[in-house]
Amino acid sequence: MRKYFTNLLTAVSFTSLLFSSNQLQAQWQTQNGNLYVNPPAKVGIGLSNPNRNLDIHSTSDTYLRVSSLGGASLSTLTAGIELRRTVANGSSSATWSINNENHFRIRHNGDLLFGLAPDMARMGINTDNPVVFTIYGKNAAKSGSYVADGALRLHTKVGDNIHMLALDGNQIESSDPLYINNDSEQNVHIANGGGKVKVGTTDNEARFSIASESDMQLKLINPGTGGAAWRIGVANSNWSAGAGKLVFSKTNSSDDATMVITPAGNVGIGLTTPSKTLQVNGITSTKILEITGGSDLAEHFDIEAGETLLPGTVVSIDPNKPGQLRVASQAYDRTVAGIVSGAGDVQPGMLMGQAGTLASGQHPVALTGRVYCRVDAQYGAIRPGDLLTTSPTTGHAMKATDSGKAQGAILGKAMTSLETGRGLVLVLVSLQ
């Protein structure tokens, strides 16, 4: 810089520069090998009306060069520009420097804030002295098939493919599949603050929401030996499993659903159209089965009845219709089969049958367990422990008093009393 100004002074023969504002004369002077202007002036290079202390103008490419020479390597000496501000009494100052130290660096009071090399860049002092960098950028937006804008854009090349990642204040867009921890085994945490994760939806109800109209929404994969994959999805009207059902499948087809849960809460295992709270198409094995909604073991039968068949009715085998029953109507009937379940608000505990065969029907008949039975006490008052059999009163039981006739016609034992008339008696069904 000194050589440049020396040549400049030679060119102008150390003539004075004229100030148009106050007509004061500024002289170039030297002292201790230094060159300066006194009084202070604005210096123009390439123009006669400089607006700054040093104002350089050219109609072609223009550079201001600061060079250093010496040392054994490019990083030995620094070529730079130093900007300093100092209070009037000199009590404090702040210094910024822009340097070429082989690497381009920006410092504040000696702390490196920005460094740039041909193959890398660094921002910030260090982890013990963190700084904040703010970028005011555009929102990432889609323009046709291209992601445009963004506050920050990253480009990398993998093989022949160039990957692009665009970020703005609350959005991340990628030109290719987006990976987190692709080459490391670190955890991904969405830990604090009550945030919610949404995939394919803006629903704000749950902490984690996934939406998809055609595919299974969730796939769980165990890649280990003997592992498998399970799909979980919510069906719509285009799915064969049926709209609104929660589907569990071993394949990506709802046709192969292993289990479904309907909007009504029915669970189907091995079938997709359960009509009961739990419906299983297959063998069920359990160590202990506890039933709390009923107290008798019943089977479905078709029953011929001349009038509405009421719960608690005593029924017998119909000899003319294989697999079917009829309402009992004679005393000591050895074809007695059981009692229609459901009287007195006591429901069947277990119902059996096989659809499409003779072992099916419309009415649950208790074959064992506790069930209320219609009884006629005109043939003898009923007390707990009495054996009951069929009676001449249609659909009613009576106390068995003739042990000879009762053999093979016993319906069970009474557990409650009935002194007179007709009524319901709790019976422990035990055909014999």
Can you identify the CATH class of the domain at 296-430?
A: Mainly Beta
Determine the CATH topology of the domain at 296-430: Virus Head Decoration Protein, Chain: A
Structural class: mainly beta
Largest sheet: 11 strands, mixed
Overall 3D form: rod-shaped
Number of strands: 34
Strand content: 35-45%
Note the total helix count. 2
User: What separation lies between the terminal Cα atoms?
Assistant: 124 Å
Percent of residues in helices: under 10%
Indicate the low-confidence ranges by residue numbers: 1-24
Rg (C-alpha, Å):
49 Å
What topology emerges from the helices and strands here?
Layout: H1 2-11, E1 17-18, E2 25-31, E3 34-38, E4 43-45, E5 54-56, E6 79-86, E7 93-101, E8 103-108, E9 111-117, E10 120-123, E11 141-143, E12 146-148, E13 152-158, E14 161-167, E15 172-174, E16 197-199, E17 208-210, E18 218-221, E19 229-234, E20 246-249, E21 257-261, E22 267-269, E23 278-280, E24 296-301, E25 303-304, E26 314-317, E27 325-327, E28 336-340, E29 350-352, E30 363-376, E31 387-390, E32 397-399, H2 403-406, E33 410-414, E34 422-430
Parallel strand pairs: 4-5, 16-17, 22-23, 24-29, 25-27
Antiparallel strand pairs: 1-2, 2-3, 6-7, 7-8, 8-9, 9-10, 11-12, 13-14, 14-15, 18-19, 19-20, 20-21, 21-22, 24-30, 26-27, 26-28, 28-30, 30-34, 31-32, 31-33, 33-34
Descriptive report:
The chain is mainly beta and 432 residues long. Among the domains are: 2-56, no CATH class; 214-280, no CATH class; 296-430, Head decoration protein D (Virus Head Decoration Protein, Chain: A). The chain contains 2 helices and 34 strands. It has helices spanning 2-11, 403-406; strands at 17-18, 25-31, 34-38, 43-45, 54-56, 79-86, 93-101, 103-108, 111-117, 120-123, 141-143, 146-148, 152-158, 161-167, 172-174, 197-199, 208-210, 218-221, 229-234, 246-249, 257-261, 267-269, 278-280, 296-301, 303-304, 314-317, 325-327, 336-340, 350-352, 363-376, 387-390, 397-399, 410-414, 422-430. The strands form 8 sheets. Strands 24, 25, 26, 27, 28, 29, 30, 31, 32, 33 and 34 form an 11-stranded mixed β-sheet that branches. A hairpin with a 6-residue loop joins strand 6 (79-86) and strand 7 (93-101). The chain starts with a helix and ends with a strand. Residues 1-24 have low confidence and may be disordered.
